[in-house]
Specification:
Blueprint (H helix, E strand, L loop, with lengths): L18 H21 L25 E5 L2 E4 L2 E3 L1 H12 L6 E6 L5 H13 L4 E4 L6
Parallel strand pairs: 1-4, 4-5
Antiparallel strand pairs: 1-2, 2-3
Helix pairs in contact: 2-3
């Protein structure tokens, strides 16, 4: 703030210059916007196509389905603990040409549990992960 004492007094005005602060804030904003894009992780998905009502989906007997329930895992209805999941899937996919797994998660399971199971499957050599969705009525 400044004060002026008429025409004969000194007229010093001591205001804060905020232009450099705004410049710094804009530079930081740009840096954070760019950093956010670099830190984002993505999961590529392919959504299933709806079949006409008169046509049924054909199931491949070689499909492997990982069912995730609260506190338990099942691979093709065989119960597996979380610690046994990686060795079991690694053994299952060794020598298998199609490295595809379908994940069927219960609605009560947390997102983190599903992503951890998908990461374990990726670590076992799975290339494609599909989602089994509940039937719509």
């Amino acid at each position: 703030m400044g004060i002026s004492m008429g025409k004969t007094g000194r007229s010093e005005v001591s205001d804060i210059n905020i232009t450099p602060m705004i410049d710094v804030l804009l530079v930081l904003l740009v840096i954070f916007m760019l950093a956010q894009q670099v830190l984002m992780k993505t999961v590529d998905i392919q959504l299933p196509k709806d079949l006409p009502p008169n046509q049924q989906a054909q199931q491949d007997p070689d499909n492997i389905i990982l069912e995730i329930d609260p506190g338990s895992y099942k691979v093709n209805t065989k119960p597996v603990t979380k610690d046994q999941l990686l060795p079991f899937l690694t053994q299952t996919y060794t020598g298998r040409p199609k490295k595809v797994i379908f994940v069927k998660a219960d609605g009560r399971v947390t997102y983190q549990t599903v992503i951890e199971a998908m990461d374990i499957a990726r670590g076992a050599g799975v290339k494609v992960i599909g989602a089994v969705l509940p039937p719509t009525t």
